[in-house]
Amino acid sequence: MTTRVVRVDLPSTGTLLDAADLSGALRVAAVLFVTVLTTVAAQISIPLPFTPVPFTLQPMVVLLGGAALGARLGMSSQILYLALGLAGLPVFAASPVLPQGLARLLGPTGGYLMSYPAAAFVAGYLATRGLDRRYATSALAMAAGLAIIFASGVAWMAWGLPHLGGSAAVRAGLLPFLPADLIKVLLAATVLPAAWKFFGRPS
Fold first, then answer.
1. Structural domain tally of the chain?
2. DSSP 3-state percent helix, strand, coil across the chain (nearest 5)
3. 132-164 as b/e: b if 16+ CB within 10 A
């Protein structure tokens, strides 16, 4: 007696949501789930004495969520997150000096927050093109999103705090976080290829 192995060939483009064949209601729930995860990640923050930017797990959640949901839904999850913050809900990282609400988006860390929809969109777009199927390309997709977050954050800080100057903004808003965030990207890049293996690797 022979055992026949059935292999499921998934399309080379699309998201994990497409692979899971989720209904519209479950897709909405997935967007809300990523929004909640972004909020929770913001609360796990470590303030640093030499910069107004706290260390949080948000970038990893933003990029993973965008890659899993796809460009449009990933961006929607972060737009919803910012909308909750604008409404005054305490969704941003706790800070003794930076208030919640609109003032946080206009403050020195606003560039990071406002970049989240674009970063999620880029990570999601690259994922739908198949870059989330393998570790190296998954890391590349997330690194592209991370570059958007840092570029926006540092540029906003340099503009909002002109006394710092561009080089000081880089030292305060990029260099202290880059090693840890690159490690987070490398770790997060293992999640999506593993998930695709669960559903079956595309040909």
1. 1
2. 65, 0, 35
3. bbeeebbbebbbbbbebbbebbbebbbebbeeb
Work out the number of other CB atoms within 10 angstroms of the CB of residue 53: 24
| Structure token pair of residue 14 | 């699309």
Q: Per the domain annotation, does 9 fall within a domain? A: no
pTM: 0.86
pLDDT in tens, 146-185: 999 999 999 998 886 666 667 888 888 899 999 999 998 9
The answer to whether the beta carbons of residues 54 and 48 sit under 8 Å apart is yes
In DSSP notation, 47-113 reads: --TT-SPPB-SHHHHHHHHHHHH-HHHHHHHHHHHHHHHHTT-S-SPP-SSS-STHHHHHSTTHHHH
> Can you give the CATH number for the domain in which 29 is found?
1.10.1760.20
Separation of alpha carbons 167 and 35, rounded Å: 33
The answer to whether position 55 is within a domain reads yes
Give the three-class secondary structure for 64: helix
